[in-house]
Amino acid sequence: MTDRPEQDDLELVRKCLSGDVRAFEYLVDRYQKTVFNAALRIMGSYQDAEDATQSTFLKAYENLKSFNPKYKFFSWLYKIAVNESLNSISQRKQPEELDEDFASRDKTPEEIYRDLELTENIQDALMGLEPEYRIIVILKHFHEFSYKEIGQILDLSEKTIKSRLFTARQLLRNTMLRGGI
Amino acid sequence: MANERYMNLIQQEVDGTNTSSERRRLREHLGENPEAKAIYDDLLRVTNMLNKVEKVDPPPNLKKTVLNSIQTDKYVTKKNGSRILGSIANLLPARRFDLRYAYIFGVGLLAGIVVYALFIERNTSPDLSRLYGTMGATNASLALETAGQLSINLAKVQGTITTRFAPGVVMAELQLKSEQPVEAVLEFDKSDISFSAIGRQNNSTDNLEIGENYLCLTNLGEGKYTILFDDRTEQISMINCKISSSGTPIFQESISTGKKGN
């Protein structure tokens, strides 16, 4: 492999557009985990998340010329990921149970069990939210986007994001307290 | 019921975005309003639980699947040869993978011409202009000379890399044998040479990736690859050959493209 110093996203996009496929590989390396996790939390299915991640990167590559460099690349990529995940949800008839084999295997069995239980309960609570609320919680809590960035990804105002996030947190609180989490 | 202004402050506090004066104001309000304090505590608890959820590693083959799905030459500036190959490709139904097959087809065609030139028309100095695209150099005679050879004799991979040249053309031949997948990368200076075509005569499983200044293939089994470059400068240059196994470099040497311009 070619040694390549850390490069910013725009530089990698530029190189990719000039024919350097390796630059796109670096972008995949950089964002596959976060995109996959966003899709996983939105959809609750490991297999669906894998499919959505693949189609996200494929669409990103196919439409790279339409990327506007005045925005952040990862915001643009997340926007695609969110749309792919929502499309997948809308095509799905029954909500799926969260796959359970996600936990890190570096932990003790007790820690793994505890984490799995917590993760499963939280995912259940998330899946109880409407997608428009769930996505905002995921982008805010699991990916630490600002209100402004979430607004850019979802094409919504910051005020709407704040309002929906507040409602989503209240709903989560009710679900979690009712479930004894 | 806590009013909207304080709900906003509660949310900002949970997110850690309150200024010190906003925080002070909220503390005072929460101290006087147990209902708002209960909402704040619950939201903080929910937030802390959400923050405990760890990220999951994606499937190990995800990147490979993505990279195998994209049309690797989508943003590569096409030259004449590539345009001809692209035209061939357009006749094929599967557009995403078409150029690779077109390259193989094209190189098969070229190989046939070269073999014919070398072994059947040995005495007639065939004209390269009969070759397709940029491979042809009008009035140039085909006389491929060996420029260099590398032997690879490692536990994980064995084989040879040979470079040959003729006016306007550099050819690299790779013969690789590996029981595990190995990644072979040829890096070159794009101002000296540029990728033109590749042909594969294989019993191997392989993946191919082509960039402006590199070519990367994954070999498993016995593979023979013939790679053709356009020689842009007629100057001697080097191709850096790297082989890695499971991401670990196991071989790296440079090979000359040969002395030209005579």
Short characterization:
The complex is a heterodimer of chains A (181) and B (262). Chain A has eight helices and no strands.
Keywords, please?
heterodimer, A: 181 residues, mainly alpha, globular, B: 262 residues, alpha+beta, eight-stranded antiparallel β-sheet, 6 helices, 34% strand
Number of helical stretches of at least 4 residues of chain A: 8
Q: H/E series of chain B, N to C?
A: HHHHHHEEEEEEEE
| Oligomerization state | heterodimer
- Can you give the helix content of chain B as a percent range? 25-40%
Mind telling me the C-alpha Rg of chain A? 18 Å
Strand content of chain B: 25-35%
Please compute the radius of gyration of chain B using only Cα atoms: 30 Å
Strand content of chain A: under 5%
| Overall morphology of chain A | globular
The helix/strand series of chain A, from N terminus to C terminus, equals HHHHHHHH
Overall outline of chain B: elongated
SSE-based structural type of chain A: mainly alpha
Most residues in contact, chain pair and counts:
A-B, 50 and 49 residues
Question: What structural category characterises the helix and strand content of chain B?
Answer: alpha+beta
Descriptive account of the structure:
In chain A, 39% of the residues are buried. Chain A has helices at 9-17, 21-43, 46-62, 73-91, 109-127, 131-142, 147-154, 158-178. The longest helix of chain A is centred in the N-terminal third of the chain and has 23 residues, at 21-43. The N and C termini of chain A lie far apart (47 Å). The model of chain A is unreliable at 1-6 and 95-105 (pLDDT under 50). Chain A is mainly α. With 262 residues, chain B is of the alpha+beta class. Helices cover 33% and strands 34% of the residues of chain B. Chain B has six helices and eight strands; from the N terminus they run H-H-H-H-H-H-E-E-E-E-E-E-E-E. In chain B, strands 1, 2, 3, 4, 5, 6, 7 and 8 form an eight-stranded antiparallel beta sheet that branches. In chain B, helix 1 (4-15) packs across helix 2, helix 2 (20-32) crosses helix 3 (34-52) and helix 5 crosses helix 6 (98-120). The longest helix of chain B has 23 residues, at 98-120. Chain B is elongated and about 95 Å long. Chains A and B meet through helix 2, helix 3, helix 5, helix 6 and helix 8 of A and helix 1, helix 3, helix 4 and strand 3 of B.
